[in-house]
Design goal:
This protein has eight helices and 17 strands. It has a seven-stranded mixed beta sheet, with helices on both faces. Strands 1-2-5-4-3-6 form a six-stranded antiparallel β-barrel. The structure holds flavin-adenine dinucleotide and FE2/S2 (inorganic) cluster.
Length: 305
Protein backbone atom coordinates (compact mmCIF):
# COMPACT_ATOMS: atom_id res chain seq x y z
CA UNK A 1 0.00 0.00 0.00
CA UNK A 2 1.48 3.37 -1.00
CA UNK A 3 2.20 5.45 2.05
CA UNK A 4 1.67 8.73 0.26
CA UNK A 5 -1.75 7.59 -0.89
CA UNK A 6 -2.62 6.68 2.66
CA UNK A 7 -1.46 10.00 4.03
CA UNK A 8 -3.41 11.78 1.29
CA UNK A 9 -6.61 9.91 2.11
CA UNK A 10 -6.64 10.90 5.77
CA UNK A 11 -5.26 14.41 5.30
CA UNK A 12 -7.81 17.13 6.17
CA UNK A 13 -9.46 18.46 3.02
CA UNK A 14 -8.95 22.09 2.07
CA UNK A 15 -11.87 24.30 3.02
CA UNK A 16 -13.20 21.90 5.64
CA UNK A 17 -13.57 23.65 8.98
CA UNK A 18 -11.43 22.36 11.84
CA UNK A 19 -14.57 21.70 13.92
CA UNK A 20 -15.90 19.26 11.31
CA UNK A 21 -12.77 17.12 11.58
CA UNK A 22 -12.30 14.28 14.06
CA UNK A 23 -10.32 15.55 17.06
CA UNK A 24 -7.18 13.66 16.09
CA UNK A 25 -7.07 15.30 12.66
CA UNK A 26 -7.44 18.91 13.80
CA UNK A 27 -4.36 21.14 13.66
CA UNK A 28 -3.00 21.51 17.15
CA UNK A 29 0.07 23.43 18.11
CA UNK A 30 0.38 22.07 21.64
CA UNK A 31 2.06 18.83 22.81
CA UNK A 32 1.19 15.99 22.22
CA UNK A 33 1.88 16.41 18.50
CA UNK A 34 -1.13 16.14 16.21
CA UNK A 35 -1.89 12.84 14.54
CA UNK A 36 -1.19 14.46 11.20
CA UNK A 37 2.42 15.34 12.05
CA UNK A 38 3.09 11.96 13.67
CA UNK A 39 1.85 10.13 10.57
CA UNK A 40 3.75 12.36 8.14
CA UNK A 41 6.92 10.70 6.88
CA UNK A 42 10.18 12.41 7.77
CA UNK A 43 13.40 11.61 5.96
CA UNK A 44 16.16 11.25 8.55
CA UNK A 45 19.88 10.74 8.28
CA UNK A 46 21.51 7.86 10.13
CA UNK A 47 24.04 9.45 12.51
CA UNK A 48 25.33 6.15 13.86
CA UNK A 49 25.12 2.54 12.65
CA UNK A 50 26.36 0.01 15.19
CA UNK A 51 26.69 -3.72 14.50
CA UNK A 52 25.43 -5.58 17.60
CA UNK A 53 26.07 -9.08 16.27
CA UNK A 54 26.00 -11.07 13.03
CA UNK A 55 22.34 -10.22 12.19
CA UNK A 56 21.48 -7.24 14.39
CA UNK A 57 22.32 -3.56 13.88
CA UNK A 58 21.33 -0.42 15.81
CA UNK A 59 20.68 2.81 13.88
CA UNK A 60 20.58 6.21 15.54
CA UNK A 61 18.90 9.23 13.98
CA UNK A 62 17.60 12.62 15.06
CA UNK A 63 13.85 13.17 15.13
CA UNK A 64 11.94 15.55 17.42
CA UNK A 65 8.74 13.48 17.55
CA UNK A 66 10.57 10.26 18.41
CA UNK A 67 12.28 12.18 21.23
CA UNK A 68 8.82 12.54 22.81
CA UNK A 69 7.93 8.84 22.43
CA UNK A 70 7.01 6.54 25.30
CA UNK A 71 9.02 3.31 25.75
CA UNK A 72 7.26 0.57 23.78
CA UNK A 73 5.99 2.84 21.00
CA UNK A 74 7.10 2.01 17.47
CA UNK A 75 7.90 3.74 14.18
CA UNK A 76 7.26 2.69 10.59
CA UNK A 77 10.61 2.69 8.80
CA UNK A 78 10.64 3.22 5.06
CA UNK A 79 13.58 1.69 3.23
CA UNK A 80 13.50 3.51 -0.13
CA UNK A 81 12.67 1.18 -2.99
CA UNK A 82 12.08 -1.82 -0.73
CA UNK A 83 9.30 -1.65 1.90
CA UNK A 84 8.09 -0.01 5.08
CA UNK A 85 8.34 -2.05 8.30
CA UNK A 86 7.50 -1.52 11.99
CA UNK A 87 10.38 -1.11 14.46
CA UNK A 88 10.32 -0.38 18.17
CA UNK A 89 12.39 2.50 19.46
CA UNK A 90 15.36 1.00 21.31
CA UNK A 91 16.60 4.39 22.55
CA UNK A 92 14.72 7.62 23.21
CA UNK A 93 16.38 10.82 24.37
CA UNK A 94 14.85 14.21 25.03
CA UNK A 95 17.53 15.74 22.74
CA UNK A 96 15.81 13.90 19.88
CA UNK A 97 18.45 11.19 19.35
CA UNK A 98 16.53 7.94 18.85
CA UNK A 99 17.48 4.42 17.82
CA UNK A 100 16.02 1.31 16.29
CA UNK A 101 17.63 -2.13 16.62
CA UNK A 102 17.04 -4.32 13.59
CA UNK A 103 17.27 -8.10 13.31
CA UNK A 104 17.64 -9.37 9.74
CA UNK A 105 14.80 -11.78 8.97
CA UNK A 106 13.76 -11.00 5.39
CA UNK A 107 14.05 -8.60 2.47
CA UNK A 108 13.30 -5.28 4.18
CA UNK A 109 15.26 -5.86 7.37
CA UNK A 110 18.21 -7.11 5.30
CA UNK A 111 18.13 -4.00 3.12
CA UNK A 112 17.84 -1.81 6.22
CA UNK A 113 20.84 -3.46 7.82
CA UNK A 114 22.94 -2.60 4.79
CA UNK A 115 22.52 1.08 5.61
CA UNK A 116 25.45 2.97 7.10
CA UNK A 117 26.11 6.31 8.77
CA UNK A 118 25.09 9.12 6.41
CA UNK A 119 22.40 7.08 4.60
CA UNK A 120 18.76 8.15 4.85
CA UNK A 121 15.55 6.35 5.80
CA UNK A 122 11.92 7.46 6.17
CA UNK A 123 10.22 7.51 9.57
CA UNK A 124 6.51 7.72 10.51
CA UNK A 125 5.39 7.67 14.12
CA UNK A 126 5.83 7.13 17.01
CA UNK A 127 2.65 5.04 17.07
CA UNK A 128 0.62 2.98 19.50
CA UNK A 129 0.50 2.58 23.23
CA UNK A 130 3.75 1.97 25.06
CA UNK A 131 4.52 0.43 28.45
CA UNK A 132 2.94 2.00 31.53
CA UNK A 133 5.70 2.45 34.12
CA UNK A 134 4.96 0.93 37.54
CA UNK A 135 6.54 1.36 40.96
CA UNK A 136 7.41 -1.43 43.41
CA UNK A 137 9.18 -4.64 42.47
CA UNK A 138 9.21 -5.09 38.69
CA UNK A 139 10.47 -7.84 36.39
CA UNK A 140 11.56 -7.29 32.79
CA UNK A 141 11.75 -10.37 30.57
CA UNK A 142 13.27 -10.04 27.11
CA UNK A 143 13.98 -12.62 24.44
CA UNK A 144 16.56 -11.86 21.71
CA UNK A 145 15.83 -8.62 19.83
CA UNK A 146 12.70 -8.29 22.00
CA UNK A 147 14.95 -6.53 24.48
CA UNK A 148 14.96 -3.45 22.19
CA UNK A 149 11.78 -1.69 23.45
CA UNK A 150 12.54 -2.84 27.00
CA UNK A 151 15.74 -0.76 27.13
CA UNK A 152 14.15 2.74 27.23
CA UNK A 153 11.61 1.25 29.64
CA UNK A 154 14.39 0.03 31.96
CA UNK A 155 15.87 3.54 31.86
CA UNK A 156 12.52 5.00 32.88
CA UNK A 157 11.86 2.39 35.59
CA UNK A 158 15.31 3.01 37.07
CA UNK A 159 13.83 6.32 38.30
CA UNK A 160 10.52 4.95 39.66
CA UNK A 161 10.73 1.28 40.70
CA UNK A 162 11.93 -0.01 44.09
CA UNK A 163 13.66 -2.97 42.51
CA UNK A 164 14.23 -4.08 38.91
CA UNK A 165 14.95 -7.66 37.88
CA UNK A 166 16.07 -7.91 34.24
CA UNK A 167 15.89 -11.39 32.72
CA UNK A 168 17.42 -11.58 29.24
CA UNK A 169 17.40 -14.78 27.23
CA UNK A 170 18.70 -15.78 23.82
CA UNK A 171 19.71 -18.83 21.83
CA UNK A 172 23.45 -18.18 22.35
CA UNK A 173 25.84 -15.58 23.79
CA UNK A 174 26.15 -13.70 20.50
CA UNK A 175 22.38 -13.06 20.49
CA UNK A 176 22.32 -11.48 23.95
CA UNK A 177 21.98 -7.75 23.38
CA UNK A 178 22.85 -4.61 25.35
CA UNK A 179 24.95 -6.27 28.09
CA UNK A 180 26.96 -3.09 28.83
CA UNK A 181 23.93 -0.83 28.54
CA UNK A 182 21.95 -2.90 31.07
CA UNK A 183 24.96 -2.79 33.39
CA UNK A 184 25.20 1.02 33.10
CA UNK A 185 21.48 1.65 33.66
CA UNK A 186 21.27 -0.62 36.68
CA UNK A 187 24.63 0.19 38.27
CA UNK A 188 23.12 2.55 40.88
CA UNK A 189 19.73 0.89 41.24
CA UNK A 190 18.41 -1.87 43.50
CA UNK A 191 18.45 -4.55 40.83
CA UNK A 192 19.28 -8.02 39.67
CA UNK A 193 20.22 -9.23 36.19
CA UNK A 194 19.90 -12.80 34.94
CA UNK A 195 21.14 -13.98 31.54
CA UNK A 196 20.11 -17.29 30.02
CA UNK A 197 21.14 -19.03 26.80
CA UNK A 198 19.68 -22.13 25.23
CA UNK A 199 23.13 -23.54 24.41
CA UNK A 200 24.71 -22.56 27.74
CA UNK A 201 27.35 -20.33 26.07
CA UNK A 202 26.59 -17.50 28.57
CA UNK A 203 24.70 -17.27 31.86
CA UNK A 204 22.36 -20.08 32.84
CA UNK A 205 21.59 -22.80 30.28
CA UNK A 206 17.80 -22.80 30.06
CA UNK A 207 14.83 -20.88 28.65
CA UNK A 208 14.41 -17.43 30.18
CA UNK A 209 10.83 -18.23 31.21
CA UNK A 210 12.07 -21.09 33.42
CA UNK A 211 14.35 -18.70 35.31
CA UNK A 212 11.54 -16.15 35.56
CA UNK A 213 9.39 -18.81 37.23
CA UNK A 214 12.16 -19.62 39.73
CA UNK A 215 12.22 -15.91 40.68
CA UNK A 216 8.44 -15.70 40.91
CA UNK A 217 8.37 -18.64 43.32
CA UNK A 218 10.62 -16.71 45.71
CA UNK A 219 9.57 -13.06 45.26
CA UNK A 220 6.32 -11.14 44.89
CA UNK A 221 6.44 -8.88 41.81
CA UNK A 222 4.17 -5.89 41.22
CA UNK A 223 4.49 -5.85 37.42
CA UNK A 224 6.06 -7.95 34.65
CA UNK A 225 7.08 -6.44 31.31
CA UNK A 226 7.92 -8.69 28.39
CA UNK A 227 8.88 -8.62 24.71
CA UNK A 228 10.29 -11.38 22.53
CA UNK A 229 9.11 -14.42 20.59
CA UNK A 230 5.35 -14.73 21.01
CA UNK A 231 5.49 -18.23 22.50
CA UNK A 232 7.84 -16.90 25.17
CA UNK A 233 5.49 -13.99 25.95
CA UNK A 234 2.50 -16.35 26.03
CA UNK A 235 4.29 -18.57 28.56
CA UNK A 236 5.12 -15.48 30.64
CA UNK A 237 1.45 -14.48 30.46
CA UNK A 238 0.40 -17.93 31.78
CA UNK A 239 2.93 -17.64 34.63
CA UNK A 240 1.76 -14.12 35.45
CA UNK A 241 -1.85 -15.35 35.59
CA UNK A 242 -0.85 -18.27 37.82
CA UNK A 243 1.09 -16.04 40.24
CA UNK A 244 -1.49 -13.21 39.96
CA UNK A 245 0.99 -10.60 38.75
CA UNK A 246 -0.12 -7.96 36.19
CA UNK A 247 1.78 -8.16 32.92
CA UNK A 248 2.42 -5.92 29.90
CA UNK A 249 3.59 -7.55 26.66
CA UNK A 250 4.64 -5.93 23.39
CA UNK A 251 3.14 -7.86 20.46
CA UNK A 252 4.17 -8.07 16.81
CA UNK A 253 1.80 -8.44 13.90
CA UNK A 254 1.99 -7.57 10.21
CA UNK A 255 1.58 -3.81 9.99
CA UNK A 256 0.84 -1.61 7.02
CA UNK A 257 -1.02 1.58 7.95
CA UNK A 258 0.01 1.64 11.67
CA UNK A 259 -2.98 3.85 12.46
CA UNK A 260 -5.83 1.39 12.93
CA UNK A 261 -7.29 1.52 9.41
CA UNK A 262 -6.24 -1.53 7.39
CA UNK A 263 -6.85 -4.36 9.88
CA UNK A 264 -3.70 -6.32 9.00
CA UNK A 265 -2.59 -6.30 12.66
CA UNK A 266 -5.92 -7.52 14.05
CA UNK A 267 -5.89 -9.90 17.03
CA UNK A 268 -9.37 -10.71 18.31
CA UNK A 269 -11.16 -7.38 18.57
CA UNK A 270 -7.91 -5.47 19.03
CA UNK A 271 -5.63 -3.78 16.53
CA UNK A 272 -2.06 -4.17 17.66
CA UNK A 273 -0.92 -0.91 16.02
CA UNK A 274 -3.52 1.19 17.85
CA UNK A 275 -4.59 -0.72 20.97
CA UNK A 276 -1.02 -2.01 21.40
CA UNK A 277 1.64 -2.88 20.60
CA UNK A 278 1.82 -3.14 24.40
CA UNK A 279 -1.20 -5.03 25.73
CA UNK A 280 -1.95 -5.55 29.41
CA UNK A 281 -3.20 -8.72 31.13
CA UNK A 282 -6.86 -7.78 30.69
CA UNK A 283 -6.43 -7.14 26.96
CA UNK A 284 -4.41 -10.34 26.54
CA UNK A 285 -7.16 -12.35 28.28
CA UNK A 286 -9.62 -10.96 25.73
CA UNK A 287 -7.51 -12.33 22.83
CA UNK A 288 -6.28 -15.56 24.40
CA UNK A 289 -7.81 -17.65 21.60
CA UNK A 290 -5.24 -16.07 19.24
CA UNK A 291 -2.37 -14.85 21.45
CA UNK A 292 0.56 -17.28 21.07
CA UNK A 293 -1.38 -19.30 18.49
CA UNK A 294 -2.43 -17.42 15.34
CA UNK A 295 -1.71 -14.32 13.33
CA UNK A 296 -2.81 -12.89 9.98
CA UNK A 297 -0.38 -13.39 7.10
CA UNK A 298 0.39 -10.81 4.41
CA UNK A 299 -2.81 -11.77 2.54
CA UNK A 300 -4.97 -11.44 5.67
CA UNK A 301 -5.32 -15.23 6.09
CA UNK A 302 -5.30 -16.56 9.66
CA UNK A 303 -2.21 -18.76 10.07
CA UNK A 304 -0.64 -20.70 12.93
CA UNK A 305 2.31 -18.98 14.60
C1 LIG B 1 5.29 -3.09 16.76
C2 LIG B 1 6.44 -3.86 16.17
C3 LIG B 1 7.73 -3.60 16.61
C4 LIG B 1 8.80 -4.30 16.06
N1 LIG B 1 10.05 -4.02 16.53
C5 LIG B 1 11.11 -4.66 16.01
C6 LIG B 1 12.43 -4.35 16.46
O1 LIG B 1 12.64 -3.52 17.34
N2 LIG B 1 13.45 -5.01 15.88
C7 LIG B 1 13.26 -5.96 14.90
O2 LIG B 1 14.25 -6.52 14.40
N3 LIG B 1 12.03 -6.27 14.45
C8 LIG B 1 10.96 -5.65 14.99
N4 LIG B 1 9.69 -5.96 14.53
C9 LIG B 1 9.52 -7.01 13.50
C10 LIG B 1 9.81 -6.45 12.13
O3 LIG B 1 8.88 -5.45 11.79
C11 LIG B 1 9.74 -7.60 11.09
O4 LIG B 1 10.75 -8.52 11.36
C12 LIG B 1 9.96 -7.05 9.70
O5 LIG B 1 8.82 -6.34 9.32
C13 LIG B 1 10.22 -8.16 8.73
O6 LIG B 1 10.29 -7.64 7.41
P1 LIG B 1 11.22 -8.33 6.32
O7 LIG B 1 10.83 -7.82 4.97
O8 LIG B 1 12.64 -8.19 6.69
O9 LIG B 1 10.85 -9.86 6.46
P2 LIG B 1 9.74 -10.69 5.66
O10 LIG B 1 10.42 -11.47 4.61
O11 LIG B 1 8.60 -9.84 5.25
O12 LIG B 1 9.19 -11.64 6.80
C14 LIG B 1 10.00 -12.31 7.70
C15 LIG B 1 9.18 -12.53 8.97
O13 LIG B 1 8.75 -11.26 9.54
C16 LIG B 1 7.31 -11.20 9.64
N5 LIG B 1 6.83 -9.88 9.14
C17 LIG B 1 6.87 -9.45 7.86
N6 LIG B 1 6.40 -8.19 7.73
C18 LIG B 1 6.01 -7.80 8.95
C19 LIG B 1 5.43 -6.63 9.46
N7 LIG B 1 5.14 -5.58 8.66
N8 LIG B 1 5.16 -6.59 10.77
C20 LIG B 1 5.47 -7.60 11.59
N9 LIG B 1 6.03 -8.75 11.17
C21 LIG B 1 6.29 -8.88 9.87
C22 LIG B 1 6.79 -12.31 8.75
O14 LIG B 1 5.59 -12.87 9.29
C23 LIG B 1 7.89 -13.33 8.74
O15 LIG B 1 7.79 -14.22 9.82
C24 LIG B 1 8.59 -5.28 15.06
C25 LIG B 1 7.29 -5.56 14.62
C26 LIG B 1 6.23 -4.86 15.17
C27 LIG B 1 4.85 -5.16 14.70
S1 LIG C 1 -1.54 -1.81 10.76
FE1 LIG C 1 -3.36 -1.18 9.81
S2 LIG C 1 -4.84 -1.48 11.35
FE2 LIG C 1 -2.98 -1.92 12.35
Amino acid sequence: MGINLLTKRIHPRKGRSQKELPVNLRNRSSVPPSFDSVNRMRIVEIVEAKKENFTVKTFTFIDKLCGKAEPGQFVMVWIPGVDEIPMSLSAITSEGLSSITVNEVGEASRALNQKEKGDTIGIRGPFGNGFVPAGGNVMIVGGGTGLAPLMPLTEKLAKTADKITVMSGAKCQDNLLFLDRIDNILSEVNSETVFTTEDGSYGIECLVVDQAEQKMKKEKFDMIYTCGPEQMMYNMFLLAEQYKVPLQASLERIMRCAIGLCGSCQIGKLRVCKDGPVLNSEQLRSVKEEFGKFQLDLTGKRIKL
